């Protein structure tokens, strides 16, 4: 089968290329899936560099989540050949086929196409763990979402509104800011110099900040967060891992909370299952508004990865093996 293979770690994707590899063999408690769509996530890019906490042995196939059709399934899994499914794979998704533990596979809601379905799991689970489990966002609270046109940012902005919060977004480009404002009808600010506007809009500061960017954005966020606020760290796409002097959260009374949805589910399996059910129930009811910026054939993988690296996309990028 064809797959995107990382054979050497590099900062310029030179160790990554499509290749023909052996098709996976389904294990005794697994489902073999024909991949129709696989979404890209920032950890996929980091893994090609060896810069993510999960470091698969070389060579490996990246790809954390897919949608497709069941080829075969272990008895008792509840799946049968031809079933439309979504699956969380961690790795292996950017291929024509992938074998997945049955517990990580679920039926694809009828209203969703493959590309959209593949784009929901990772980013919306991160948003859900951040806003619901860790920040415990309440209706009417102010939620400031950075990088709001990216995968996690867009999901957090969408979910914040579903939860009844009042949202403010930031983004680097004027074109993206206009797109966000039209799509979500919220105030949208530049990615820098937002402090004064946030304090004016909220009457003092944001109750919750979702930060997938880090660096200068994190630094400025500590200056416009409310007393008792929650600053949620979901990543550092800016490339700089920020630090904060301990006197700042002490004086301002806010918390800095790290968000790892996958690790949360591994440590709290029952809550993890509840999180997934909540997200997919919302998706089936049409409450979520995921956005697929581009669905490209696997042969155009580099274009997709470079768009991810340069933050040129809006929402999610999908490859079609």
UniProtKB/TrEMBL annotation:
<dbReference type="InterPro" id="IPR011032">
    <property type="entry name" value="GroES-like_sf"/>
</dbReference>
<dbReference type="InterPro" id="IPR036291">
    <property type="entry name" value="NAD(P)-bd_dom_sf"/>
</dbReference>
<dbReference type="InterPro" id="IPR020843">
    <property type="entry name" value="ER"/>
</dbReference>
<dbReference type="Pfam" id="PF08240">
    <property type="entry name" value="ADH_N"/>
</dbReference>
<dbReference type="Pfam" id="PF00107">
    <property type="entry name" value="ADH_zinc_N"/>
</dbReference>
<dbReference type="InterPro" id="IPR051397">
    <property type="entry name" value="Zn-ADH-like_protein"/>
</dbReference>
<dbReference type="InterPro" id="IPR013149">
    <property type="entry name" value="ADH-like_C"/>
</dbReference>
<protein>
    <submittedName>
        <fullName>NADPH:quinone oxidoreductase family protein</fullName>
    </submittedName>
</protein>
<dbReference type="InterPro" id="IPR013154">
    <property type="entry name" value="ADH-like_N"/>
</dbReference>
<feature type="domain" description="Enoyl reductase (ER)">
    <location>
        <begin position="11"/>
        <end position="319"/>
    </location>
</feature>
<dbReference type="GO" id="GO:0016491">
    <property type="term" value="F:oxidoreductase activity"/>
</dbReference>
């Amino acid at each position: 089968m064809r797959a995107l293979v990382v054979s050497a770690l590099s900062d310029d994707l030179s160790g990554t290329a499509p290749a023909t590899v052996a098709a996976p063999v389904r294990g005794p408690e697994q489902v073999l899936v024909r991949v129709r769509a696989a979404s890209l996530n920032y950890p996929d890019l980091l893994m090609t560099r060896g810069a993510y906490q999960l470091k698969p042995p070389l060579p490996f196939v990246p790809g954390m989540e897919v949608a497709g059709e069941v080829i075969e399934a272990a008895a008792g899994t509840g799946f049968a050949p031809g079933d439309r499914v979504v699956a969380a794979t961690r790795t292996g998704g950017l291929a024509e086929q992938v074998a997945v533990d049955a517990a990580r596979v679920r039926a694809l809601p009828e209203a969703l196409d493959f590309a959209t379905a593949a784009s929901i799991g990772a980013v919306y689970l991160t948003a859900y763990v951040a806003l619901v489990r860790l920040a415990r966002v309440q209706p009417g609270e102010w939620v400031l979402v950075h990088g709001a046109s990216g995968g996690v940012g867009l999901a957090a902005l969408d979910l914040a509104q579903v939860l009844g919060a009042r949202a403010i977004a930031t983004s680097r480009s004027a074109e993206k800011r206009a797109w966000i404002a039209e799509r979500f009808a919220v105030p949208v600010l530049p990615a820098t110099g937002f402090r004064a506007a946030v304090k004016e809009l909220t009457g003092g500061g944001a109750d919750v900040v979702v930060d997938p960017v880090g660096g200068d954005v994190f630094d400025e966020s500590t200056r416009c967060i409310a007393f008792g606020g929650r600053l949620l760290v979901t990543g550092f796409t800016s490339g700089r891992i920020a630090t904060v002097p301990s006197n700042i959260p002490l004086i301002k009374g806010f918390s800095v909370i790290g968000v790892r949805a996958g690790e949360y589910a591994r440590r709290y399996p029952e809550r993890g299952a509840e999180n997934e059910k909540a997200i997919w129930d919302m998706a089936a009811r049409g409450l979520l508004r995921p956005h697929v910026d581009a669905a490209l054939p696997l042969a155009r993988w580099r274009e997709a990865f470079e768009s991810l690296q340069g933050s040129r996309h809006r929402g999610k990028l999908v490859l079609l093996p």
